[in-house]
Amino acid sequence: MSRFHMHVGVADLDKSIAFYSGLFGAAPSVTKPDYAKWMLDDPRINFAISVRDGAHRGIEHVGLQVEDADELKAVYGRLKDAGAPVLEEGATTCCYAKSEKSWIADPDGVVWEAFLTNGEATVYGDSPDFAPLASADAAEGACCVPATVEVRPASAPNVCC
């Protein structure tokens, strides 16, 4: 069974941890100096926050986390069926975890990831270049939403998981 994932950029990690811990009625399952994550069953969500220098504040991306390789294969098939470019990142380290993942953006530029976590990592990790996901529709239709995740160069701060 897949789990919904949302990653939010925050300005003050301690204040945000206190807020979300109160909101969810639970402490984070993972905390780092720049990151926190709640793995909740009600609602079934992997909710993460991070404070990164110069990074976007608010929703950075959303996604689907799966529990095994067969489920990941099925979700990858649905990404391809969605009719938008898919960025197949493969094995990566991101958000203090080792994962296998791919990315896609909806017609308005909201970036989605599909991933399977295989273990923990001691570093935050890297973020791919989302430029291949940018669509002309997202750029033209952007009114009140960020333009395709403010496509950042590879040297920009990480914005993953």
Automatic annotation (TrEMBL):
Instruction: Cite the InterPro entries for this sequence.
Output: ArsI/CadI-like, Cadmium-induced_rsp, Glyas_Bleomycin-R_OHBP_Dase, Glyas_Fos-R_dOase_dom, VOC_core
Record-linked Pfam families: Glyoxalase (PF00903)
TM spans, by residue? Answer: none
Keywords linked to the UniProt accession: Dioxygenase, Oxidoreductase
In this chain the VOC domain maps to: 2-117
What's a GO biological-process term for it? response to cadmium ion
Q: Which GO terms describe its molecular function?
A: dioxygenase activity
The highest taxon in the source lineage is Bacteria
Q: Which PANTHER family match?
A: CADMIUM-INDUCED PROTEIN CADI (PTHR41294)
Protein name per its UniProtKB record: Glyoxalase/bleomycin resistance protein/dioxygenase
| Higher taxonomy | Bacteria, Pseudomonadati, Pseudomonadota, Alphaproteobacteria, Sphingomonadales
